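User: structure tokens for ATPTG10-like domain-containing protein, please.
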Amino acid sequence: MEKFGSDLESINKFADSIQHLSPEGMVEAFNKFSWDDQAVAKHLPVYCKASPEELKKVDDAFVKLVPSQDKVYGPNFNTMALWLKTRIHMQMGNHNA
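Assistant: Done. Predicted tokens:
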């Protein structure tokens, strides 16, 4: 859960930094993300094969956890969102391939 909390804080800081045109904040938040977490990396293919129902649950949670997600765009944010959604999927106990 520690990495989940840290990633959540980082993605929200990244989104806030985009909205306030703070490149330094964006870089710091992106680099602080848990890119080295092998559990998420291994679960990514499982998340990508998730059922529409599972994806909806993850998306619903993501929208609540990252309130500015509809105001922020770009490849870095999208990559962070995919990583965090994969982590959410893992946390929800969706471990089936």
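User: Anything notable?

Assistant: The chain has a mean pLDDT of 92.
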